[in-house]
Amino acid sequence: xxxxxxxxxxxxxxxxxxxxxxxxxxxxxxxxxxxxxxxxxxxxxxxxxxxxxxxxxxxxxxxxxxxxxxxxxxxxxxxxxxxxxxxxxxxxxxxxxxxxxxxxxxxxxxxxxxxxxxxxxxxxxxxxxxxxxxxxxxxxxxxxxxxxxxxxxxxxxxxxxxxxxxxxxxxxxxxxxxxxxxxxxxxxxxxxxxxxxxxxxxxxxxxxxxxxxxxxxxxxxxxxxxxxxxxxxxxxxxxxxxxxxxxxxxxxxxxxxxxxxxxxxxxxxxxx
Length: 272
Fold this sequence. Notes:
Elements: H1 3-104, H2 109-136, H3 139-144, H4 146-161, E1 164-169, H5 176-197, E2 201-209, E3 212-219, H6 233-245, E4 249-254, E5 260-267
Parallel strand pairs: 1-2
Antiparallel strand pairs: 2-3, 3-5, 4-5
């Protein structure tokens, strides 16, 4: 092989090596470009899915709050109907029974006995109507405030469920809507205690904490596993969205045999 041919061969090898390196660099560059594109597409798709998820979550939260508001409105309507209409009818019936009673007291002892029984029945119905009305629309909350309303709720629950209630309640500055939310939360927690907890003692705590109103309901019942759903959890789910709609947070802590603690925080009302 002549010197010219050897030189040409070496040049060809160098050129082929250069071309190979160039091709490799172009391949690596294209691969990096494709990888960046894939990552960008994946991130875009993830962001879009997250946005859709956040949007659906927000819509669901708004729907839950709307349903809670509609529920309270319906409760108020029923409470007014029971108090204004049924209450008036029962009071009128009791007055009529009292008038008849005075007229036949000496005429028919048997009829008088039936009227006494009727009067007692009317009194029981009136008392039941008042309890139902109070449960639908807690007048103690608007008339007396949150702390007295919770004290009355706890006292009535303890008497009806034969469970000891230990209350430590301190006044907190809340908007009326937030006061109703906390009252309903404690009411829901006590209902769940009566249905599922098999508890002997319940502790209710309310007071300011780190610039927020903090409330908790703790029982010494059977508890439950936090993983998975349980009976009564849908009521708490609705309450969670209701509390979050008021700017607060709800926490549930429980384990089998260790009781349950339901706690929530809500922002205090800012006064000028």
